[in-house]
Amino acid sequence: MLMPRQISSSLTAIMVSDLERSKQFYRDVLGFDVTDWWAVRDGLQGIALKLLQAPTPQDVKPNPAENEWSRAFDVYAYTDDWASLDSLYEEFRSKGAIISGEPVISPDFGPWKEFIVQDPDGYHIAFGGVDGRKANSYVQDHVDSVFLWVRNLDKSVKLYAALLGLEIREQDRNDHLHLFKLSNGTSLILDSNGMSEIPVPEVGPVLFKLNTVDIEGAHRHAEELGFQVVYGIARYPQVSFFNIRDEDGNIITISQNHA
Question: Which stretches make up the VOC domain (predicted)?
């Protein structure tokens, strides 16, 4: 029997000499989403760091190189393909990042391509991967974003922030769009463009599925927020689920996997 997933993400903790300087570097140079709790790029399942103020300069300890032929790194991030890798390299370089290891290709490992960025304390962040392009497809096999059409953007933003336990931030609003970056890297985008005159559909399909570890609590929480439960909790040996509908007609499944 397959075991249910119990760990969804992790953080690499690093001691820094100047916390505010490091926050600024990871936000402005490397494009991380920086909060008081973490610094992440592409969500908690992308590259996720915990920046901690070192008590003394001696507590800042970047890793040495394994040997004289290898390159030192403290964190290693994997990309899906070389196009993404090259894009990151150009982005970081254009913002003034120190490239401590220029891009190199190792033919015997994929081939594998990588480069390394150095932060203000000398920590080395490596980025690498194989060329993941498929012979017969230009489209990557993962869902990047999900759109929900809404009529009252402010109200819907508050509703979904409460449902998912997410912070509402001004920088995530762009005119008629609001973007929530989910922990798995997928974006949930609420879009109100041109929706004021569009009637709410009476019926529709499930648009996507969210997970919970407490199906009863999730059901109660959704009802308290004002979602309409259009399909009550169905229970099976391996999964339980229910469907909810918002006032714009968007239908979502919430499920709990069982061992």
Answer: 8-130, 142-257
Closest to 128 measured CA to CA, from 179, 79, 198, 65: 79
Under DSSP, the state recorded for 197 is: T
Q: DSSP label at 199?
A: P
Q: Minimal CA–CA distance to 229: which of 246, 248, 243?
A: 243
Paired strand residues for 173: 178
* Cα 198-203-206 angle, rounded to 5 deg: 105
4 DSSP assignment: P
- The amino acid sitting at 171 is Q
Give the Cα separation of 126 and 224 in Å (integer). Answer: 45
Tracing tokens 């929530």 back to the chain, one arrives at 180
pTM, rounded to two decimals:
0.59
Q: What angle do CA 133, 139, 145 make, to 5 degrees?
A: 125
Cβ atoms of 163 and 221 within 8 Å: the answer is yes
* Cβ(101)–Cβ(49) below 8 Å: no
Residue with tokens 């391996």: 238
Angle between helices 153-164 and 215-225 (to 10 degrees): 160
Q: Is the dihedral of CA 140, 148, 218, 159 positive or negative?
A: positive
Task: Give per-residue pLDDT as tens, 39-65.
Answer: 999 988 899 999 999 999 999 999 998
Distance between CA 33 and CA 171 in Å, rounded?
Answer: 11
CA distance 29 to 184: 23
